[in-house]
Predict the structure.
Amino acid sequence: MAERKRKGQDREEEQGKVNAPAGPNLYPIDIGLNGKLITSIDPVQGAGVNFQTLKNLRYTPNGIKGILGMSKINTTALSSYPKIRSGIHFRKDTPAESHVLVQAYNSGLTEAKIYENETAIPSQGDFNATALHTDSSGASWGRWSKAPDGCIAYCNGVDTMVWGGDEYRVASFINFNPDASFKYDYTEAVTNTLTDSVNTAFLKTVAGGGGNDSNAVLLLNANSDFTDSASGSAPAKTVTASGAVINTTTKKFGAGSIFFDGVNDYCSTLDHADFDYSDGTWTVDFWIYNNADTSGYIYNQQTDANNNIRLYNTSDTLYFRIMSGGTDVVSISCPTSSLSNLAWHHVALVENGDSYKIYIDGVEKGTTTDTDRPANYTGTVYIGSNQGTGNYLSAYIDEFRVSKIARWTADFTPPTAAYSTSSAVTHVYIGSVRPIRGAKFYVLTANTAAATTTAFYWDGSAWASVTNLTDGTASSGKALAQTGSIIFDDTKSIAKTSILYANQFYWYYFKFDGIDNNTAIYYTTLDCSFQAIKDIWDAAERNCLSFKLLKTTLEDYTLQIATDDYDDSASHTFVNLGAMTSSQYCYAGFDNPVTALYFYIAGGKENTNTATISIDYWNGTAWTSVGTVQDATLSSGKTLGRTGIVSWNAIAAGTEFTTSLTNEINFYYYRIGFSATLSANCYLYYLTAIPTQKQIGQYKFPILWQNRLWLCSNQGGKKNWIRGGSYGTVCVFNGSDSVELFFGGDEEVTAAAPLFTRFGGSVYDILIITKRNETYLVDGTSPEDYRVYMVAPNYGCPAPETLRICDMGVETSFGSNKHVAVWQSSNAIVIFDGNTIMPISDDISNFFDPADSRCINSSMVHRSIGFYNKNKREYTWCFASGSSTSLNEEWVYNFRENKWYEVDRGSKDLQLGINVIDTNGNDFIYGAIDTGYLERLENGTSWDGSDMTYNFRTSDMSFNGVMYETSIRFLKLAGKAKNITANDISITHYLNGSSTATTPSITAISPDSSNRIFQVVRSLNSGKGTYHSLDFSIITNNETIGLEPLRLGLMVKVEREDIK
């Protein structure tokens, strides 16, 4: 580069020779206007063809040429948040999306929001009125990056965010039957836009229960909550759960059942006219799964203790009684032998006139005939307890229904599906790597039957109904009748991960009641709002590092369960948990907190005794329950009845601690217990775990490198490190494919950028990392071989938003072109080609000189910005000079010519530059000004309605050396003709470095001409002097390019020797 620079200077000085012999004659001087702007030295020292001022005129290979103006993108200002400070253009091809996102501050720079503009590039259009995000308190200026998996990332030192646009891919799409009779994994089919049979989800329906008709006045499907879904009464009744919970493991139909623990659980709902059974025609029916203790009230309502209706069971009898005035006037009883424990049974209590019947599994088990009727009781209705004060039920209840009709009068076949409004139901699980607020279904074959949609999210312990659901796929009462979005209130603050089919995602359950068997979906996307980055398990099971069994003494069985190599004839390949009692425990230790244990149970050696499992963690002082567990090893009420995962809602960060059981290495231990004694032989041959989600920190900035998302400078932790996610993801920061890298001392990392470079015959993709006064690079291709190297201990980047990559090939040495990074260091603008850091700002080094009035404001150094125009191969540097607290200087470096020029936009200084791309791949640049507008740069004839001034001034020229005085008698300016503007080019002459123009003034030149170029001669009496400078300026607002000077000619006279 130095050699090229030297040759360039030689050429310029040769062209700039202006020596004229002494004498009475006039001599022509031809000035080619192909010099360069130099502000770092006195204009007297510049060669004759250089400039001391060059505003709004860029370099061409042979001279200078005016730049274009700028025009508004948004015609409506972001008036409440006018100070746009950072931004990115986020575009996707499938589905096609384009979003310009900006971080915009209020006038006081105390609060910021993220706004989105979806207008096609580069057309004019406004920002969406609703902000995508509001920055958290304490956040700094935001930083953006592209990210893998069709996303962008955003960090501001507090918020670490991700967004995948309006439509993001699904992680899993499962069409299933709740009874596990089928499961169709359509994930691959619905994550592309092909429509052939291989890439289409043909939704399979299952028989719906019907039964949710106009006669149903209370219906608890218990899929996710205690919502009354009965069709026969409006509005729905409010059912309050007191201790009772939704259990998603033990259920008859759908996604869950109501669990009553027999200690203090019950449900209740206020009295209603629908519970007046005095007309003698009604039914209460449900499915029940009794635990070992079968005593308890199932249904109860009273006016007082002497007037009530109740259905309850004891250890051996099921009773129904009506009490009036303290006397049981109606009574039925039947043995509970038909209600065997740990199995589902259907129970129906029916009155049809004078006939009362109890049916168990569709068979009449008790009956009486009586003319007495239930009264219209006024008290609360209780399910699972006697008035909420005792006789608590120990059982699971599913599909609890009250009907104002006698549903059955003779033996019947029990329902084979959950009660619904239709006879066909389609069940779909959708998994996402982060919480959603909707899903879009692209319909290939539309449903033609009346159908409805319900949706649920996992709240950590049960399926919960989404709120405010709107079904955009519905048409004329038919769900999935057209392509559309099913949207609902955002679940990002309430949804939790769950493990289904051995995958950890944010799972959502969609139930379509009534769609026909021909309905087909070919593509599905998710609406994931702008939200915090989440960590999702990488699908690699974690090995158990310590496993101990405490029966009478603590015994170590770590080696027995460490590998998946079961051999029933080799006792060292398994541990027998058989006959473990409720007072004995297993202890499993891991190097990090976990949220699930994967039990591998040998076939034929499963536990066959009824029991449930419990998991405890160490809180630092005692064993504490993890809470409700989801036990996939449960088989007919028998935990460890099969291989499966036992999972729980992750324990809050900072509340789990390591411990040692036998003075060995500390681990995160989990204590495993059982509610009852296990069968004699229960072989556990392998135990692994699923790690707890990592807490993503408060990062300063993100960067995309090698298709990994890197989060840099954790402001709540280690500021000198960066965390790299798993390849191709934005959600996996755990496991062997994620990595953490450290850089030097504690000083924070400030900026990063990837750089492609070549050394010899080898090609490298390196990552540049800077601190304020240090530069590093990272080399390698995977976590196993990443290496950190210090490049410069004294050159760093204190202005992170100036670091940009110039990937069009920059001549770093004579004949050698490379990609380079460019940024503002503490004392120069520098470039880095992967080998050497080199300054390129020598010509304007005065801006780094504290003695210069235009020196960069030291308190605003970190706020400078830069952007690269690859079409022009120019780097723009904006900074605050003097005492300014906003960016008031804009300077541009031309990499072709290795020269700087200045841009002056009047009062509309740029505070941001964003590279944007249209659908054809054409590049544009948007800029932001402090009145709430984005501007399209290099577009238009004005500064968004304000005049543009084009101005150049030569250096102080000595035409015959410093020992002679000369005068300019004539000048001639040639340039491209301008036929729109009526304004002229003003000319000013300065003598001997004076700041005052010489008199008389020079007549202005009109650039108008009927020819392709104008060329105008002006006479002037410059006066005698050693140094001459000429200034040319024109103001326009209607010319595409307001000034294109080509040549400058002078007629000079040598007046005399200056030997005074």
